[in-house]
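Quick one: structure for this chain?
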Amino acid sequence: MGRSSSSSQPTTRVRQKEPAVTVIEIAQTVDARGLSCPMPIVRTAQAAKALPSGAAIEVLATDPGSTKDLTAWCKATGNELIEQTVDGAVFRFVIRRK
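Got it. Here's what it folds into:
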């Protein structure tokens, strides 16, 4: 016996919304790879002073201590740590200037 391919119920497709992707424009990159504490913070602070409020700074560092150091620096200065990632031995931070 064959099956009937007609159905009394219409097929409804639900389209799921894709999450919004936020694009952050990097105003300056601080390459602190190979530098030890306190130099990643010193270089980041120098770069931040030269940028307007709201600008984003990307910091690349290889010092594992930079994770705690940059987090503490952002809290102390009021700057916002908006992204933190690790790619192999390189720590990447994106900071928005207050």
